[in-house]
Design goal:
Elements lengths: L1 H21 L2 H12 L13 H11 L9 H21 L12 H30 L12 H11 L12 H40 L3 H22 L1 H12 L5 E3 L7 E3 L7 H12 L8 H30 L35
Antiparallel strand pairs: 1-2
Amino acid sequence: TEQIHRFAGLGVGLASVAAEHVLSHPCIVLRRQCQVHHDSKWYHLTPFSLFQTLYYMHRHQSLTSLWKGLSSSLMVKGMQVASETVISEVTPLPREITRHSSIKKVAQHLLLKGLGFVVTCPFYASSLVETVQSEIASERPGLFDCAREGLARLRSLSTPQVTRQLPIWKVLGPYVLYGTGYYILSSMAQYTALVSLRTDLGEEQSKSPAMTSIYYPELIATFTGCLLADIAMFPFETVLHRLLLQGTRTIIDNTDTGQSVVPIVTRYEGFVDCFKSIIVDEGFAGLYKGFGSLIIQYACHAAILKITKVLFDAITNQMKAPRPVIPTPRPSMPAPPGFQAGHEYPPHIPQPKLH
């Protein structure tokens, strides 16, 4: 049983990573393309308007085009984890906290997260370009192009500004605020959901813990935290992506038709100017362009969780099923002396003793 639980825990971790990063990546690609398409007529606030765009994109491009930028996205995630690990080793900043941690320790932990976002900011910008650029109008990037372009953008701090591309120090603040805010919201929602789910299970489940009650609440809590954080930070993300993409000469797929490409040409001066321009030119709904893709992403994630729960229940029932009892053969008694096969002997009746 312990070995089964160990493999189940590993499976849960792999399934969570796959659902969060790999399987949801096509929806992230569509969402980001809609967010940075400033001249689009269709806002794709619901999933239904995206189906036609997906159909034509599939006809004109390969299906694998929806996974463009996946390697660079995973690289940025790895750099974030690696940078936090290194900083926590050379500084007293804690890498993990609990609900019993002091306010000072929580603040130090958030500072560590912020420093990690500072390190990965230029590489996140280059990964964003790989995610949204059309494969029709550009070549597929190499494996290490994300790192090279990130270093080039970092070197641009010491060079004069000759394009509309914003210097990295101008987008560094919004990116750190976005990353830290997303982490705080998702962590709070995840903790609240996990406590609520474990409380609802009651003492009955704690007496006979099943795989569903052990692992499934964590999956639901992670799903809830990411969903609420994505919804709350969606307008912030829209503004941030437009700032990071400005001046990069990126050409994206036309999200209105899915049959052509459009260049990204914007002139935002900073975060506040970009936010005001979106409200004036595109309306408040312009901050939520591509929200329908987010709905598709979490609908698919919810379906994966449902399948996972069914598998957990099946494994639990299999472990609880009673095993058939195999009767143990009784040892045969030795035959009495003078016994011959085929003869019957009357039972021995003891005679009373006479006194």
